[in-house]
Structure formats: structure tokens, C-alpha cells
Sequence to fold (108 residues):
Amino acid sequence: MDKSIKKLIVFSFCLMGFSVKSALPEGTCGSVIQLKYPLVVVSAKNGFVGCGYIDASACGEDEACAIVSGVKIPEDVLKATVKAVSSKAADLGVKVGMSGAEALERFK
Fold:
């Protein structure tokens, strides 16, 4: 998939549902898409932190992503523990075990 399309998909998450900007770090965008369990993604300039619906290995070397679980709203992502990272996220210093907030700092 073309990188610009991937970026558009992540950006689209920020436009769907509702955007929570007050509690999230500046330069990030979080949204909730209604499924049986919410699909939650918080994106920053150079990567994103998403819920367990997303497979970090699918992001590979093209996208920097960190995966957390047990989140229902974007603010939960900040406190959640990173369970998996893409190789590009690892190159940016994101590691399993850090918080979602720490991962987003590295994605700025």
C-alpha cells in the first residue's frame, strides 16, 4: 500500500467518531470508531499508538506503531503499557513495556 494512502487512513481515524484533543499531548489526535470493542488510535507526526485490533508486524518498516491493549478511549492509550512495536517504531526508540505516552513522545 502506498505510504500516502496509509497516512490518509491514519488521518481518517482522527476525523471519524470524535476527536479528543484536550487530554492528549499537543500534535496528537485520538478517535474512537464504534465496533463491539472500540478501535482506538492516537497518532503523532511520526507514528501512532493503537489498540490490539492492529497488528504491529503489519506496519513493518513502513509505519511506526506501538500496540496497547485494554483501552476504550484515547486517554487510556497514554497510561497503557506497550505490548508490541513495529520495526520502524523500534528504530525510533519505542520499546515493549513503556507507556503509550512515552511512545507518543518518540513519535513527535
Observations:
- Strands lie at 29-33, 39-44, 47-50, 65-68, 82-85.
- The radius of gyration is 12 Å.
- The mean pLDDT is 78.
